[in-house]
Specification:
446 residues, alpha/beta, Rossmann fold, pyruvate-formate lyase- activating enzyme, OB fold (Dihydrolipoamide Acetyltransferase, E2P), six-stranded parallel beta sheet, 21 strands, 24% strand, globular, binds 5'-deoxyadenosine, binds iron/sulfur cluster
């Protein structure tokens, strides 16, 4: 590669989960520290970071087609500098370097704090790959949080030791690691100073977070939430994603005791058949999952539930799929994500017998999503007529219209004299399948 001018503008494109959104923000902050600014809307950027996701199929193909689109018909001096980050970078870094000469940098999710050094090399015409997994060193090397959204993310835990047989995360994000308590309290305070009203604590297995508080006592996620709730100016706390195996009594109790902890729980179940769950190496049964939800609901009766589902896991029969539908009926989710099983290279399930035909998966996904959509709309309708607090997150499509989130993570839109970051009381007037129309009642706080 030829040496090139230092990039002046950047664009970070994040795919996949909220952890990637967080990482994307942190990479943007680092580029900002170097004086590189976001490319104006509609204009090409000098540097494009593709922050990729590897969880389901076609992830790598998408990266190559994005690279193709960015470089099509352009000579090297006209094409943007490209960095591939995220989980595809971790899993297929060397291949990307070999197949895509237009890529200058490949950087894994545990190594992106080294992006500035890699950028220096790239400007000299040197391509660089860094997919090391140093235990959590990254966070200490990142710049301080200076700007953020009213609803912000805070990564508290990374990695996974659960080894569900379909999942690539233990390989791309490594072993479970918790960030230290003190760092998290400090970062949360910084986020609030920068304008955050809500913080969602993130982790692939967020409920496995553990640490030591400032008195040296061992604390779990509930303890961390209790202490973050004391941060002045922070109005709302959420966390995601949890694994049923790590949900302890203290966390359940926290839902009943801490007002700032929002009444929402994302707890993936994946399937309703115990045989399938066992083959997935999930540690719960349908029954134990339902019992766990009952305990959460006892602590917080208005808790909204969310989940993840996979249809067509190898060997899943029609009857076993029906058990997933039965479980959905039993729970009544407020929202959920559902996916067709996608064999991930290197995972145990990819080589299991009984891979399910695509048409069968399509049909199952359609039926599952119909049931989930029905329940989501029913949940929204059940909140019609209620007045609740909404955090204003952005402008709506029409002038004077605003969009925010209810405590149950529903999108609500309404008109009125408010601003982004305001907490307002909104009456939920009319429920749609994906959002609610509301009427502004009063401002709560600026
Ligand atoms: N195929 C389909 N869906 C998957 N997920 C994880 N791995 C796979 C896979 N191989 C889904 C799970 C998980 C969510 C983040 O993505 O439902 O909870
Ligand atoms: Fe995708 Fe998982 Fe990586 Fe998130 S951690 S970006 S869901 S592969």
């Amino acid at each position: 590669m030829k040496p090139t001018n230092s990039p002046k503008t950047y664009r970070v494109k994040s795919f996949g989960c909220q952890m990637n959104v967080y990482d994307g923000e942190r990479m943007a902050e680092m580029l900002g520290e170097r004086g590189i600014v976001p490319a104006p809307e509609g204009e090409d950027a000098d540097l494009v970071v593709l922050n990729t996701c590897h969880i389901r199929e076609k992830a790598a193909e998408k990266v190559y087609s994005d690279i193709g689109r960015l470089t099509k018909g352009k000579t090297q001096d006209k094409a943007p500098m490209i960095a591939v980050a995220g989980c595809v970078a971790q899993a297929e870094g060397e291949e990307i370097m070999a197949r895509a000469p237009a890529v200058s940098m490949v950087v894994g999710p545990q190594a992106y704090h080294r992006l500035p050094e890699m950028l220096d090399k790239a400007v000299q015409g040197e391509r660089a790959t860094d997919t090391d997994m140093p235990a959590i060193a990254k966070f200490a090397a990142l710049p301080e949080r200076k700007r953020t959204n009213p609803a912000s993310f805070l990564t508290v835990q990374e990695g996974c030791d659960k080894f569900c047989t379909y999942c690539v995360v233990p390989y791309t994000r490594g072993a479970e690691i918790s960030r230290p308590y003190g760092d998290l309290v400090t970062e949360a305070r910084k986020l609030v100073d920068a304008g955050a009203k809500e913080i969602t604590l993130l982790g692939q297995n967020v409920s496995a977070w553990s640490g030591e508080d400032d008195k040296g006592h061992a604390v779990g996620l509930a303890g961390l939430i209790r202490d973050l709730a004391k941060v002045d100016g922070l109005a709302r706390i959420r966390y995601t994603t949890s694994h049923p195996a790590d949900m302890d009594d203290d966390l359940i109790a926290a839902h009943g005791e801490i007002d700032k902890l929002m009444p929402f729980l994302h707890l993936p179940v994946q399937a309703g058949s115990d045989r399938v769950l066992k083959a997935m190496n999930r540690s719960h049964t349908a029954e134990s999952y339902l019992r766990l939800l009952e305990r959460f609901r006892a602590a917080r009766p208005d808790l909204a539930l969310s989940g993840d589902f996979i249809v067509g896991f190898p060997g899943e029969t029609d009857a076993e799929f029906e058990e997933t539908l039965k479980l959905v009926d039993a729970v009544g989710y407020a929202q959920a994500f559902s996916f067709k099983y996608s064999p991930r290279p290197g995972t145990p399930a990819a080589s299991m017998e009984g891979q399910v035909a695509k048409e069968v998966m399509d049909d199952r996904l359609q039926r599952l999503q119909a049931a989930l959509n029905r329940d989501q709309w029913a949940f929204n309708r059940a909140t019609e007529g209620r007045t609740c607090e909404v955090l204003v997150e952005r402008k709506g499509k029409h002038p004077g219209q605003w969009l925010g989130k209810t405590p149950w993570l529903q999108s609500a839109w309404f008109e009125g004299d408010v601003g982004i970051g305001d907490l307002v009381q909104v009456e939920l007037v009319e429920a749609g399948p994906n959002s609610l129309a509301g009427r502004l009642r009063e401002r709560v706080a600026a």
